[in-house]
Each structure stands twice: as C-alpha cells, then as structure tokens.
C-alpha cells in the first residue's frame, strides 16, 4: 500500500494521502482490516472491543491513523537509481513487527521500484529478534533520534543511546564545539581546490584525536569522525602524500565496516578512485569487488570468488540499481 505523493510535498501530505488510500482499500477489501489493526495496540480499547472491531472488519479511522503513524516506511532512492519518480510513504505489514536500534541492527531495507526488500546483514540465530533502523546514529543526533522515536513510542535502549544518555554535559558541549570548529573554520581551509597548508592538516588531526578521546572507551561509536577522516585523507592527497591518504581511509573502513555499511560505501569508492589515479589498478579492482558484493549480495545472495561469472551477473544488476559501478568497471577494464 503506497502513497503516490512526492516526498517534496512534505511528510504531512504524504501521510494524509496514505491514510486516505488505505482507508479506501479497507472499505473495498475489508478482510485486510486485521492485518492493519494488529499493528497498533495503544488505543484505550479493551481486548474484547478490539477483537470485535477486527471480527466485524469494521473501519476504525483512529486505529488506521495510529497504525500508519507508527509503521509507515518512506521510499528513498538516494542509494539506487531506478529512473523512477515513485516516492512517498508505504505500509508493509510484516516489517512492522521488527524492533528498532540506532546501531547494531541485524536487518535493513531497500527498495526496487515499489518493492520493499528486507535482508540480513549478519548471520541470525534461530529465535533471535529482527532489528531494523528507523533513525541511524550517524546521520541523526541523539536529540533528533529521540524526538522522532518518542512520536512512535519507542524507548531505544541501543548501545549508542545508552552512551549518549550517560555522557556528561561537559563532554556533549565539547563535542559540539569541536564539530562547529570543523564545519565553520577547518573544513573551508582544507577543502580548497588546489593547496592545503600543513598547519591546517595538523589542526584537523588534533580535532579528530580530541573527538576520539572523548569516547576512547567506545572507539567503535565515534561515528562523528567519519566525515572528518575522509576530509583529512583528501587533504593529504592534495599535498601529494597518497600513502597517508589511503592509510586513513582504510583505517576508517576497518573500524566501521560492520556497523555503518552505507557510510563505508563512500569510503570504499574514495579508495577505488585514489588507487585508480595512482594507477594501482589491481588494488583498485580488489576494493571494487568489495564494493560490488556489498551492493548486490543482499539481492543475489553470497557470491563465491572461485566462480568467474559472478562479476558479470553482479554488473548486470548494478546497471539497474547503481550504474556508477559499471562506469568504474569500464575504467578499470573489469569484464
């Protein structure tokens, strides 16, 4: 069930149209009512009242609104270029039973057209809870995540939320000061097109080191340094220290590859680009294969290196979902 309203028109209009679409759908096909009503249990209805509503397949607008508010999923095409303008919100009933964590989620979702795919990102034991991510800790601050999750009655107890709740006001203030200094002062200096002063690189290195020191007991939760480290790598590249640039990017990859797959994709692409510029094509191909598997294995399943045809099959898929990979493959003379 999908709203056709573009995200550009605002989340409110999307939600309104989706509510109208689903209410109309339930009027036409009332046997779907139990599927929707079971997605929300917060109304002041007795168990018997709710059972009666479900038994009669009655249209209960407030139940529909609450079920949608707590369970709709936004279609996002930032990751896949499908030459489609389908955007907006949708309701998929089975994924609505997954719980949330800001990090350490064991499944993730993506779209091909209006199809929602759910894939695991690590082996999952029998009986283990499936956990998805509604607001991630890299893109959204603790306050932003808390505000959204409160709206859908989620009290997140993930490692990241617990750490951020426990941090002193002094640490939070210092982090904010350092990040402000990066965006307003250091980044404009080191992102100049041509030259970078070594003193500015030292400033950035000091800033990253201090940010990491504030979470030295939780090095894998220092997501706020990923962007800064990427900037540092390209600053070294500008002054001709290619080895240092690659070393920084590989360090970021090793630290966060199991936690922040979406951000790590950007790091891998940068590693491929730098190796290509340095004519280190075999190294570039190795990282290209890593990136290719990250993109297609959720759809194709585990790919085996000893099967030579896997790369061709994978590139046929990326031509549709991530055509940039095919352009890189041509540059590197891959298949």
Automatic annotation (TrEMBL):
PROSITE patterns: SET
Source organism, top-level taxon: Eukaryota
Pfam families tied to this protein: SET
Protein name, per record: SET domain-containing protein
SUPFAM superfamilies reported in the protein's UniProt record: SET domain, TPR-like
Residue ranges annotated for the SET domain, each copy included: 49-135
């Amino acid at each position: 069930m999908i709203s056709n309203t573009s995200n550009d028109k605002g989340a409110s209009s999307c939600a309104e149209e989706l509510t109208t679409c689903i209410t109309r759908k339930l009027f036409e096909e009332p046997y779907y009512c139990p599927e929707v009503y079971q997605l929300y249990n917060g109304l002041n209805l007795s168990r018997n009242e709710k059972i009666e509503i479900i038994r009669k397949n009655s249209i209960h607008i407030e139940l529909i609104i609450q079920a949608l508010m707590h369970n709709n999923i936004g279609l996002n095409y930032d990751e896949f270029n499908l030459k489609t303008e389908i955007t907006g919100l949708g309701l998929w009933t089975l994924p609505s039973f997954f719980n949330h964590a800001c990090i350490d989620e064991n499944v993730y979702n993506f779209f091909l057209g209006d199809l929602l795919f759910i894939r695991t990102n690590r082996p999952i034991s029998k009986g283990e809870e499936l956990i998805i991510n509604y607001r991630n800790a890299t893109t959204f601050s603790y306050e932003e995540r808390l505000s959204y999750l409160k709206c859908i009655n989620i009290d997140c107890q993930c490692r990241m939320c617990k750490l951020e709740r426990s941090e002193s006001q002094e640490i939070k203030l210092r982090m904010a000061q350092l990040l402000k200094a990066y965006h307003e002062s250091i980044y404009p200096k080191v992102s100049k097109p041509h030259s970078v002063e070594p003193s500015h690189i030292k400033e950035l290195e000091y800033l990253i080191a201090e940010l990491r020191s504030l979470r030295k007991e939780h090095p894998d939760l220092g997501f706020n340094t990923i962007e800064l480290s990427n900037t540092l790598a390209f600053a070294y590249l500008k002054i001709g220290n290619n080895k240092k640039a690659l070393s920084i990017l590989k360090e970021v990859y090793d630290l966060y590859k199991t936690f922040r797959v979406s951000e790590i994709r950007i790091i891998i692409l940068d590693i491929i680009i730098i190796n290509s510029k340095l004519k280190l094509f075999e190294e570039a191909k190795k990282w290209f294969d890593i990136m290719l598997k990250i993109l297609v294995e959720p759809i194709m399943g585990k790919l085996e290196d000893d099967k030579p045809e896997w790369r061709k099959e994978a590139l046929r898929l990326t031509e549709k979902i991530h055509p940039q990979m095919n352009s890189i493959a041509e540059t590197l003379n891959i298949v």
